[in-house]
Amino acid sequence: GEVLRSILGSVFFAGAMLGTFVGGNLFDLIGRRYGALVGYSMVTVSTLVASFSPSIEFLFVCRFLQGAGVYIGATGGFVLLLEYTAIKYRIQANVGVQLSFGIGYLLNTFFAYFIKSWHWLAAVDGMMFVLSVVPLLMI
User: What is the pLDDT of residues 47-101, one digit of tens each?
Assistant: First the structure.
């Protein structure tokens, strides 16, 4: 119960720590756009796969990959956004990105109210994350 939830959170942030270290090198190697796509794709795939997790150990691996992918994708995507945005519009662009995270949290809470199974909730989260990948494909 409570201990496993705590460990899942810790595993996520261990992956996030790795993602921050790996992200910079990845961006130098393949560029920010493709690096952000790699990160967001990691999150999407690992979230969808986690919804079918057969064991807690497998779920730990998925959460680790989610943490790494979130930090790789968010860092690359945010820097990419600022590079393509004119200086006078960067504040609005930043606010738009932060609002999208807030709206995502609200939607997740809304869905969690109606979807009681964490397996299905993870599947819905993974499908919602696809929406964040699509704009990167258009750049």
Answer: 999 999 999 999 999 999 999 999 999 888 888 888 889 999 999 988 888 888 7
Angle at 95 between CA 27 and CA 25, to 5 degrees: 10
Composition of the chain by helix, strand, coil, percent to 5: 90, 0, 10
Q: Backbone phi, then psi, for 99, in 5-degree steps?
A: -65, -35
Single-letter code of the amino acid located at 75:
T
Question: What is the amino acid identity at position 82?
Answer: L
The identity of residue 61, as a single letter, is V
- Nearest partner of 27 among 72, 81, 83, judged by Cα: 72
Reported pTM: 0.84
